[in-house]
Amino acid sequence: MIKKLIIFSLVLLSGGVQAQEFLQVSKASQRWADSVYKKLNRREKIAQLMVLRLSEKSGDSAIFYTKEVSRYIQKYNIGSICLFQGKAIQQALTVNQLQQQARTPLMVCIDGETGVGMRFDDILRFPNQLTLGAVANADLAYQMGQAIGIQCKRAGIQVNYAPVVDINNNPANPVINVRSFGESKYKVARFGIALTQGMQQAGVMACAKHFPGHGDVSVDSHYDLPVIPKSKSQLDSLEIYPFKEMIKAGVGSMMMGHLYIPAIDATVNQASSLSKKNVTDLVRNDLGFKGINFTDALEMKGVAKFYPQGEAAAQSLIAGNDMLCLPGDIKGSIKRIRKAIRKKELSWDDIQAKVNRVLIAKYNLGLYQVPVIDTLNLVNELNELVIPLKKEIYKQAITVLKQTDSAITPLNYKQKIAFVGVGLKAENHFSEQLKNIYKADSYCLAYNSSEEEANALLQQVQNKYDVIIVGVHQYAKYPANNFGISQTVIHFVKQVNQQNKAINIAFGTPYAMSNFTDLNNLIAAYEDDNLMHEAVLSFLKGEIKANGTLPVSIGGDYHFGFGIANK
Predict the structure, then answer these.
(1) pTM of the complete model
(2) Residue 546 belongs to some domain of the structure
């Protein structure tokens, strides 16, 4: 099956839709778009611009809104759906069912920054973009984009809301963090373009998000409206830079972020996603973007707090957006949009231009005919490209930040070694492998451990081992409450380092390493799964070098681009 997918990949590269072709108008595409448009009534024309949620997470399971979406498809001829939680086969069968019901084929979208596994419960995820940002070789970003594109094509998906090209220049950011390539505008642009080209050459439309940049915020727009008090020149020189480069490179679509930026539009509580000064004046006119503009989800509090759902949908179209993501109140949104047309805030010519852009994209994405997803061996094929590429990215990402001892690798099999799993309540794959390979003793210290428990463990390991490997595991991605890392645990790790030769490895976002920058032998491993455990073990055994560099600054001398290659 690997050979089959490689051949499929080559076919896509030779004959797939190129970046600039998604919105290319040909006689055939315009003829199809015109024929479809003529058959749409006024409500259906508006509904072609809507993206509906198909499912969402509820506890440990997924709730599918198949009946509701089906009803809207049949009543309004909805234009697009977005896939979220659920298993791959269930997603495919549901999409097939809905495509058969749709009078106009649905544009199927997914918010899959780490591939379809970000949403599909039974599919593996690709690495986070921040992990990829630790890698020097942008070709790995291209390969990851291509593999995600192949996944999406196989799953019947035409648009992926990725990559994130926000510059993560605020360590306190509560929503971007590991989703960004890092803090360098040049690396964010270079890797964003590479991932986009890989995905779009596989025939799947990419989406640069969240314009004009969601990196320098301290508020999550899912819950409130973030404010960015920067000047236009500051935004233009930093946040907007990757988007400019993505436009030049031919990204098919962009997503407008819910941000309040007075330098762009000073209207009180006006999200940039609903601002004509942002969407039309800046994105369309100044930057010359010709692709599809998606709103970020209109159900998010950054918008919904200030605009009822129907009003948010109308204002989004007035601003110049093409597609309304998760508008919520479908009937109310259509009613309010038609009212805006009657009030001459919008015109039917505006609607026609937007629908035409969407229909041209649908044609170029192959939706001039009803697609059918083959469910035979679907799960295996969606998973098959993930592991080899993930292994390579992990190996290239591992970053040595401090090497106090002249040679921390390879570990000596004759040494007496202990592993302390900070954040663990039980053994994990990494500890089991250390036990099997080095006969290491293994200990755990949870983040909610008491000071007495920490002191007792310190007494157990003190002066008994040649090397203590401290693994910092299972901490949060985001900075609230210090990533979930307690002061008791921080003090314990520092005490271990003072009294023993220690190798300290952080399995997660490097921002949390600001707690440990004064430690000896410090390694950033970025993610906490079995494949990263294996990659770190390969490094400890001396089988690979650590050539990764920090994608973000974490304090002290540890700035963007820092890393000590293991010679």
Answers:
(1) 0.94
(2) no
